[in-house]
Structures are given as C-alpha cells and as structure tokens.
Design a protein that fits this description.
The chain has about 240 residues and is an all-alpha fold. It has ten helices and no strands. The longest helix has about 35 residues. About 30% of the residues are buried. The model has no long low-confidence stretch (mean pLDDT about 90).
C-alpha cells in the first residue's frame, strides 16, 4: 500500500472550518440531549421508586421501551415516521418550518433514549440511600415530595456521579448517528473531508483526537465534581463500611 500522508491538509480551509463546525455541532447535540436526559431521567427514576403502583408501571414501561430499541431505529422513527403520524399541519412544521430539524430531532431522540438509562441510575441511587433517611424526613413533618427533593435526591445524585459520567460519555459517542439524517457533526464532517481530499486516515484521526479530547475533558470535570460532592463517612445501603 503506497499511501501519501498529508497532515497539513487538516489545517487548510475549508477543511479546518469543517472540523471546527462538526466539533461545535457534536458538543451542542451532546449538551442539549444531556439536559433532556438528566431532567426526564430524574422524573422517570423517581417514578420507579414511588409507592404508587401506576407511577412505577409507567416508569418501567418507559425504560423498557426506550432502552431496548436501537437508537438508530429511534432516530429514523422521530425523523421520518413521526411527521407522518401527527396532524398534517404539525407534520408540515416538523418537516419544513422547524429551524434545523436534523439538529432538534437528534437532540430529542438522544435525550429520550439516554433518559431511560439515566432513570435506572437515579433509581439505583435512591434505593442505595438507607430507608431511615426518608422515614426521618417524613417523621419530621416533610411531605413525600419534600423528602425526595430535600433528602433522597441530593444524596442519590452524589452516589451516582460516576455512572452518570459514563452515560454522558455515551451520548458523546452516540451523537455520531445524527449523520444518518443529515446533521454535519464531527463524524459527518470527517467523511466529507475524506470525500473531498481522499485523505481518510488523516480526517478520521483528527476526529478521533477531538472525540477523545471531549471525553477526557468531561471525565476530568466530573471527577472534580465527584470529589467536591463526596459525602464523608457515608455508607450506602447494601454496602459495608470500610
């Protein structure tokens, strides 16, 4: 194989601009989808631990539905099928009038998909808190909602920071599926550079470095947060004290 390496091509225009643009879209999709996943996943995770049987059933149904359907299939359903199922005026807005439909579809799809996974982390975090914590909160006069908001969730989120970090990194990787509906994120821009220059090794190596940089930055940030939020001396339910 006689391949001529040319790393300098990545710093020429418009290829450098394509990489920067792709990186920006990847970060925007990841952050917006994570905001949806964290908010919705928290609600679903709480619902799965409530004493109300209907709430637990709805939470379980959501998790099983979105967690067990491949994310690429979900993306196609959101982008191609949903506009055909809603009323015609809504479908026209989704397909034609919505600004940046590829971006928003990717954000919603990844957010709803990741919410099912975040919900399981939140549920496990709540269940790891000793039951006496909630009992003490209720005995002191707090309502069930206040007990969750002021006692259980603050402790649970401190426990589940490491698995939440993994879920955030998963969204970064999964955001590449957005290229299948036309969003020019980092992977799509790398393919565009390859098609324009026939230097696929360089373009995908650059994408790899940028993905790794995002992941390392996110991991370090979450590690600092975990260190600051750690509860000294706390022992989760089901674990043994050191």
């Amino acid at each position: 194989m006689n391949y001529t390496w040319n790393w300098g091509i990545l710093f020429r225009e418009p290829y450098l601009g394509w990489l920067i643009s792709g990186l920006r879209w990847t970060i925007l999709v990841t952050l917006c989808a994570w905001a949806i996943a964290l908010a919705l996943g928290t609600l679903i995770g709480v619902a799965r631990t409530l004493p109300n049987r209907a709430a637990r059933a709805l939470g379980t149904a959501y998790v099983e539905l979105f967690r067990n359907i491949p994310v690429l299939v979900q993306l196609f359903l959101w982008f191609y099928v949903l506009p055909e199922l809603v009323p015609e005026s809504w479908g026209r807005w989704l397909k034609r009038d919505l600004p940046l439909p590829e971006f928003w579809t990717s954000v919603v799809c990844l957010g709803f998909y990741a919410a099912a996974r975040v919900a399981e982390q939140v549920r496990s975090g709540i269940e790891a808190v000793p039951r006496g914590q909630l009992a003490a909160a209720l005995a002191s006069g707090l309502t069930l909602a206040q007990g969750y908001r002021l006692v259980l969730l603050p402790i649970a989120f401190r426990i589940i920071i490491p698995p939440l970090t993994s879920e955030f990194l998963s969204i970064i990787r999964t955001s590449s599926v957005a290229l299948t509906i036309g969003l020019l994120e980092l992977t799509a821009q790398s393919r565009q550079i390859e098609n324009a220059t026939f230097h696929g090794f360089e373009s995908f190596a650059a994408a790899t470095v940028l993905y790794a940089a995002i992941a390392v930055t996110a991991t370090l940030a979450m590690h600092l947060i975990e260190r600051r939020m750690r509860i000294p001396g706390f022992v989760a339910k089901g674990t043994l004290a050191p």
